[in-house]
From TrEMBL:
Protein name: YjjG family noncanonical pyrimidine nucleotidase
Alphabetical list of Pfam families matching this protein: Hydrolase
SUPFAM superfamilies tied to this protein: HAD-like (SSF56784)
InterPro entries: HAD-like_sf (IPR036412), HAD-SF_hydro_IA (IPR006439), HAD-SF_hydro_IA_YjjG/PynA (IPR011951), HAD_sf (IPR023214), PGP-like_dom2 (IPR023198), Pyrimidine_5'-ntase_YjjG (IPR052550)
Transmembrane segments: none
């Protein structure tokens, strides 16, 4: 089995449970901004629509087609107008409230701490994320993840976004390590798996939903639970 010295983790959807934390936040905002008074949609509908819109906007952001500001400005407008509100009815400050509250949520995927405790004495652990710097720092602090990781590289701090191999090379240069000594773990096939492969780094595709879509070429490894990393490392 290949010997690695450094492990690179994505953060959202891999360690920090974005869906669970976002859902909890959106339910709070539904009450806080009294969205029920419009009588046009339920809290569940609000969550599902936001998830649909946000996923597509993040895809555009990752591909460099929209900016951070455009993503943040448009996702609640698109969500709420898509649910029947007029644009002038979209509550002022709801986007800022989401950005403030969501990163303070603490849900992580099962076995996150157990696996990090297992890995930390053996490997250099690092985060590589397209998420925004100030938000990711709050998430890691709230979820007590900071102490496990030596380097945290965001797309903002290096000027590139996954899957651009230059983002991976930026982290490798900071750590002074060769690609073949590293293993990347992430949930996004294009950003994490293809990006790492193009940078010469082996990959672990984290697929908790057990999505059966065929991925070509196959990742080096595929897991559905973080605990499976102990079988690899």
């Amino acid at each position: 089995m290949k010997t690695y010295t450094h492990i690179l983790f994505d953060l959202d959807h891999t360690l920090w449970d974005f869906e669970k934390n976002s859902e909890e936040t959106l339910y709070t905002l539904y009450e806080q901004f009294e969205l029920a008074k419009h009588g046009k949609f339920t809290c569940d509908s609000f969550y599902r629509k936001y998830k649909f819109v946000n996923t597509r906007l993040w895809d555009l952001y990752n591909k460099g087609k929209i900016t951070q500001q455009e993503l943040r400005k448009s996702r609640f407008v698109k969500t709420l107008t898509g649910l029947g509100l007029a644009e002038h009815e979209v509550p002022e400050g709801i986007s800022e409230a989401y950005i403030s509250l969501c990163p303070t949520k603490t849900a992580v995927f099962p076995y996150t701490y157990d696996v990090l405790e297992y890995l930390q004495p053996k490997y250099g652990l690092h985060i590589i994320t397209n998420g925004f710097k100030e938000v990711q720092q709050v998430k890691m602090g709230a979820a007590l993840l900071h102490n496990y990781f030596k380097e945290v590289v965001t797309s903002e701090c290096c000027g590139f976004k996954k899957p651009d191999q230059r983002m991976f090379r930026h982290l490798l240069d900071r750590v002074n390590v060769r690609p073949e000594e590293c293993l990347m773990i992430g949930d996004n096939y294009e950003c994490d798996i293809e990006g790492a492969r193009n940078a010469g780094i082996d990959q672990v595709y984290f697929n908790p939903e057990r999505n059966k879509a065929r991925k070509k070429p196959k990742p080096t490894y595929e897991i559905s639970c973080l605990s499976e990393l102990k079988q690899i490392l």
